[in-house]
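Recap from last week: sequence in, structure out.
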Amino acid sequence: MIETMKLLVADIDGTLVNEPREMMPLTRAVLNDLHTRGVLLGIASGRPLGPHLYEQKDEWKVNFNFDMWIGMNGGQLYDVHKDTYEHFYKLQPKTIEEIITFMKPMHANPFIYLGEDMLSEEVDEEMFESMKRHHIQCTKVEELSELWKGPTSKILFRLSDASQMPEAESFAAQHPSKDYAAFKTQPTMLEFQDPRVNKGLGVERYCQQNGISLDEVMAFGDMSNDNGMMSTAGWSVCLKNGSDDTKALANAITEYDNDHDGLGHYMIDHWYVTHGWKTPEPLDI
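Predicted structure tokens:
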């Protein structure tokens, strides 16, 4: 366990919120308390940065503004206090075309982000659900080549069923390249991104710019796209519901899953108790 914590950074889905995407009471109380104690708080998401993502803070009913946001699995970084935004290592059109072409046998639905909205081969039920959840739009392409019209941070493939994921991961592994890396971010989502990009890149850049040692960072995650962040932080914690590869990288695993306030319980039991801090009381909201 690290001795001093100046920054706590967390993934959203499967980590910071439960399956209905609500923040649990103890997690909220811990974050509010850490903010009052001067600990910087950050979000590391696979989604693009923008107003719809930032507005989730209001849905979570926390009483502070987050200090930093990492988007697109580390491809974007927003330092709130400095009001600076950085974008790293986009995939080039030729690489995007190559990925989409070799993934065709998987019969997955490819899509990219344009700002916070999506552009996809098909607008199926899953895409409609995503639009509703995140309050964004999805447009079906007329020609598949529209997906590689310009550089983009990542290309995503939504599978029709989670049982396809092992085959899709194996298939992607059979097509290695120095220009991209593939990883699972949800049970039915496989993503491709520049191999230099990961959430750890955003954490490291933010810390460099704000005089924070990585040994003073605690990170929480649950899936493979969190692995770079888990390896970078001084102390990393995987949620009980997390993937096996992420658990293997983490310094610790929560005793509770994200549906049972896993992050909040871990902080109380392993940080507050150890440091003699008063336990914050969850509020009914």
